[in-house]
Amino acid sequence: MNLPPIARVRRTFDQPEVQDLAGTIARGVVSSALVARVPAGGRVAITVGSRGLAELPTIVKATVDAVRGLGFRPFVVAAMGSHGGGTADGQRALLAELGVTERSAGCPVRCEMDTVVLGTNAFGLPIHFDANAYDADGIILLNRIKPHTSFTGRYESGLLKMLAIGLGKRQGAAQVHKLGLPGLIKLLPEVGTLLLKRTPVALGLAILENAADRVARVEVLEPEEILDVEPALLEEARRLMPGLPFGQLDVLVVGELGKNYSGTGMDPGVIGRLRVETMPDHPSPVITRLAVLDVSEESCGNALGVGFADLTTERLVRAIDPTPMRVNSFTSNFLARARVPLALATDHDVLAACLDTCWRIDPAEARLVLIPNTLELTTLWVTRSLAGDVERHPELAIETDFLPIPLDGEGRLDQERLFPESIRARRTRVR
Questions:
Q1: Which of 115, 166, 170, 425 sits 20 to 30 Å CA-CA off 394?
Q2: Within a 10 A sphere around the Cβ of 283, how many other Cβ atoms?
């Protein structure tokens, strides 16, 4: 099949961005009531999860330095539920992949999976909590506020989720997810409220990101403010989130999925597919055929989210490490997202199959978009059928002629050439 030509489209977002990130964090921590809440010289646990926050090493180091500057003894605690295969070594390795180590943070990093039980929830299930954090004199909940990839509620991904699920380690995450979405929506605020009372939470450090994957806002919250303020921050984060600028596509090709791009590998809010048992997909965008070509190195073989796709490559399937994907799936109780789709030998084969099965008689008429992942959406490549949509969109501009899709002699897409500013391209240049 002759593949249709594509042109590069640039999307320009007019959104806020924090310029002095380290200084902003330091000033926020110092001006908080942390000194009044933690005894002099006390140990302060700083939570770090498994998500690829923008400038995460800088955020962590600035928090550690500010806490130490107040006379406390900071340490990082892995707060990622069952991620990293649900083991201490796996979580330590995942933090290192995200650039957070004892050397980069300048403090100890604790990843043990031991928990204490602090009560039971409304369904009679035990509430687990990280033993290292519980033994600290104070806890700083550091996390990004953003819409959840599986449900909509007053509290989604943020400080309360970090408290109830991230610090619950593998057992706590499993208990909160046990009853699926209805249980998750009910238990997240219930368990979070109880833990705010029974654990030494001393501060919340909420990070909001803009559509260009940069820090848009840093909000320092006292513990008593979290329940009231987080919902407003969530709505602000929802407005800042990027998405595809098209409501209907025949084909979407995603270069990489990975935990560093979304907790579900590919963000349902971007692709429009939820793939949660008994729940409908999002109303927009509507995509006839979705393909994903690779799993990111940062995801360490956890290809959760591959089940969103209709087609993939044989090399992605070979790269899957089934252990973390199974642990993640069985903990969340969302199994459809781990189903492996039809796999073909080359990227060319995948593209051709997408075009052949997208319900268009002439492949040249297909509305096709290529993106590097579901996080970085400032650069897209589109076919001619989308030129009119681009011209009518105030944030979009075509930057090149329509060119052949760059494939090497083995039929592999040159993703670094298409997306030179992407995480994948930067990773390749470092080698």
A1: 425
A2: 8
**Which runs of consecutive H residues, i.e. helices, occur in 199-281?**
226-240, 268-271
Judge contact between 304 and 342, C-beta under 8 A.
no
| Distance separating alpha carbons of residues 213 and 208, to the nearest angstrom | 10
Among candidate residues 137, 139, 135, 56, the one with its CA nearest the CA of residue 96? 56
**Exposed e or buried b per residue across 79-106, where buried means at least 16 C-beta atoms within 10 angstroms of its C-beta:** bbbbbbbbbbebbbebbebbbbbeebbe
pLDDT digits (tens, 9 = 90+) for 369-401: 999 999 999 999 999 999 999 999 999 999 999
Q: What is the pLDDT of residues 128-174, one digit of tens each?
A: 999 999 999 999 999 999 887 777 788 888 999 999 889 999 887 77
- What residue spans in the chain does CATH classification 3.40.50.11440 cover? 21-240
Residue 131 φ/ψ, nearest 5 degrees: -65, -40
**Rounded-to-integer distance, Cα 128 and Cα 334, Å:** 21
Query: What is the architecture of the domain spanning 21-240?
Result: 3-Layer(aba) Sandwich (3.40)
